[in-house]
Amino acid sequence: MSDGLFRLRGIRAGYGATTVLRGVDLTVPPRSVVALLGANGAGKTTLLRAASGVIGLSAGRRTFDGEDLTTATPHQLARRGICHVPEGRGVFGSLTVRENIRLQATKGSESEAFDRAVSAFPRLGERMNQLARTMSGGEQQMLALARAYIQRPRVVLLDEVSMGLAPRIVDEIFEFLRRLAAEGASLLIVEQYVQRALEVADAVYLLNKGQVSFAGEPSELDGEDLFTSYVGGSVGSADRVSA
Ligand SMILES: Nc1ncnc2c1ncn2[C@@H]1O[C@H](COP(=O)(O)OP(=O)(O)OP(=O)(O)O)[C@@H](O)[C@H]1O
């Protein structure tokens, strides 16, 4: 079976004795974009970590393509095409752009990987020999996304990929996310720019203190739901509540 459906059911997870997620159900349908919203500390990053296996599940199930992957390691999930782009980018700063890309490529497909990375973000092509840590924040984020893209992912978990970037770069990154979705990947995005996230999303989940308080289409979400979900968090930007 290869339906591309990624499902989390009854997820409980946290850190040590602290439970953050309390029975979360979330479905990422094939070829769709799902936005995950909620106040600071609601558990969004924790949910992406639980989804990609970075932290273990104390209860619940994770399935993909109808296969139970509850106990799979992050590596096994990545091999199934479930790819996590963590907050803070996750590139190797002391390696060049070329080396960062090569590390992600499968043996024998390095040149295809370079082409694919440059097709996603042409400016990476001009910076192949530059150390990743000497690039701008936006370029580092492009490299992180390109590293995901060359794996031909089927489900991409994206944590605040626009964080701290200039609006023009955010536009470029959202353009890329649209392309990724149009090429058939499913996306689960945590995004500080709520309005932008809702514009690309087919479905939206609101997380409130580790539980889903709303699941539906963006058009079903009224401003009050969103506001309630954000109350108590430090909102930080008017865009965050202007759905
Ligand atoms: N490594 C950790 N160890 C212990 N507690 C943690 C850890 N990471 C996060 N937490 C706690 O888990 C809760 C949920 O944090 P999480 O980062 O998932 O929230 P978030 O919704 O992504 O917030 P933000 O929008 O601020 O990034 C918070 O109370 C946080 O303090």
UniProtKB/TrEMBL annotation:
GO terms for MF: ATP binding
Q: Which Pfam families does the record associate with it?
A: ABC_tran
Q: SUPFAM superfamilies recorded for this chain?
A: P-loop containing nucleoside triphosphate hydrolases
Residue ranges of the ABC transporter domain? Answer: 6-234
What keywords does the record list, in alphabetical order? Amino-acid transport, ATP-binding, Nucleotide-binding, Transport
Q: SMART domains of this UniProt entry?
A: AAA
Q: Which residues cross the membrane?
A: none
CDD domains with a match to the protein in the record: ABC_TM1139_LivF_branched
Name the family. Belongs to the ABC transporter superfamily.
Report the protein name in the record. ABC transporter ATP-binding protein
According to its UniProt entry, this protein's organism is Sporichthya brevicatena
